[in-house]
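Minimal example, chain plus zinc ion.
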Amino acid sequence: MKLKQVEQLTEDKCRELLKAGEQAKKYTYPTPEQGYSVALLTDQGHVYTGASYNSDTYTLTMHSEAVALAMAANHGETKIVAITGPNCHICKQLIYESSLRSGLDTLIIIEEQNLIKQIPISGLMPYPWPEQV
Ligand SMILES: [Zn+2]
């Protein structure tokens, strides 16, 4: 399946998402303000945030992206237009798989030196697994 290109967001919308993601950092567990947090935008225009939930085993730690994707899915929303980054490689894989299911090439929103970048997840997966067919 060929992923559908998502229209670029306005800079204001990107900054709104980045701010929502940053504000969710206070929910990182078990220690507020220590961990990671993100925000995502669905095709319905809703924003969901996620904050990392750490485990002493590390293996059981839930990354903020997984939390946000699950939060959206638990509200019946699985078409993700954009999510804030940068993201670790595990989360890129998770976002990519979400894109394969929805058909939308989710945008990764990154602010770098006060510049907004909107990068389709497919652009961050040069040799993806599973491959697109
Ligand atoms: Zn991650």
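Residues 63, 65, 87-88, 90-91 surround zinc ion (CB under 6 Å). The mean pLDDT is 95.
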